């Protein structure tokens, strides 16, 4: 109809407008985090691998090359924020995906606190009287305010920090090479002749110095040199196009390849291994002092403070995209989606994250050793879950188009490598694993409570009825509010886009809603092109009516949409979502085949489910097979099929037919 065609044209015109992060700003946001790791990973890797530290860092760069394709495939197939949570949500269940959500939240929380504290520690090398706790909270508050102000403005700050950091590293490497040449490579020769270090944990010998132990534990320690790579998957919706994502993954990988092994090599040529192990947390400052003098040391310390503070900004940007996705999928409270009128940003997400981070700084009193172990374990776990999610996406959703494709073997090798690195860090610091489990249990309890909020609300409702029975004035108010909340949650519909009246597929969609969502309403939407609805799928209304009678606890409506010649596509999805008041992430459809004219990412976050596989049926002669409804007779009720809705407004919709009880 003219009305629907006009609406879809407006939607298409709005989607053609470009904005958001470009290649440089996106690379800077992720690069500040991933390149800041060189400030501590050079000394940390040397303490485990000794002279083989550059080799371990090259191995990690090769592993990251595999993850570059893994992340590219996953995010180009489903280009929405959320990272491992989003891919597991589309490939498994919401309960499994919530595990990735907990790990991602812990990773960003630890990133913000550890980076802010390390930034202040570097600043204290220049200003010893600087108060650590108060200054750390100020750094967190400053970047919280910058994030609330807007991502475009914060990206400009990130670009300045990133360019300054790369310039500083280039100057440091240049002076270090000059020092090695003037020294004749004497320090490098002495370090190469030194024996490999023993692996010790809490005073106990884990492994004696050897090539295998050095490569295993050195590579495990060097895994921290790529932290921040996962942030790209949580700001893809803020990028101009999926092409920017591919470019950002390439640029961050190149920075890891070019910076970490080279810095480790020049460190071997400037500092003796004993000095590197003694001052592993600020190796670059020691290199600058010896290669260039006091002025270069001051420069490096200022740059280190700035780029570590920039990693805090990356954490804010990443947590905003992740929390927004979790709230949209009802894993976190939907109140976090509220935006301020002045800047249009999710201020409650930023303020809540700042409050938790600042409270951790106060509670730990600046001692972040335990939180560093949480950072290591959660980051590596998120990377492993991303590899697992990529494998599940290949297996269950092979029809979804991808801009990049990682091979099965590359994905498996990447996942196994990260898991080995995780176990290597746990073996090196078992106490850190215990601390991680405590933080994980606390965060998991909060997620689980929100995930089961419907049951908790019901329990609260029953408890309130018993508790406030003696106080009638308060009992009515509390009961009414909680009842309204539950009914509102159950009344929010989900939308399933059906192309044909495939009863098995429709039944699978109903089971998916029943098992994964709290709603009690499902709208089956069928899009046709002709104004008279003559090209609608035959038997669709009867199939929906049958399922509505089989599942009495779930209201199933049939909606027929006349979208005009454009048919089903991104514009039709957004138009239907606007008319029904349902966000795209609460819509789903069957996994499309290669003939589908659009990408799943262009549909605005619509979920996909796999098509049911046909099963062979055995027929016994003389026996009639009958399927009984899956509910008891006591649950039978009279249900009425809703009117077939015509969103075009021309009044040509099919007539409503009530069910018979």
From TrEMBL:
- Listed name of the protein: Amino acid permease/ SLC12A domain-containing protein
Q: Does the keyword Transmembrane helix apply?
A: yes
Query: Which keywords accompany this UniProt record?
Result: Membrane, Transmembrane, Transmembrane helix
The protein's matches in Pfam families, at most eight in alphabetical order, are given as: AA_permease_2
Per UniProt, subcellular location reads as: Membrane
Taken from the UniProt entry, a GO cellular component term is: membrane
Membrane spanning residue stretches: 39-67, 87-110, 130-151, 158-181, 205-231, 252-273, 304-327, 348-368, 374-393, 405-427, 433-451
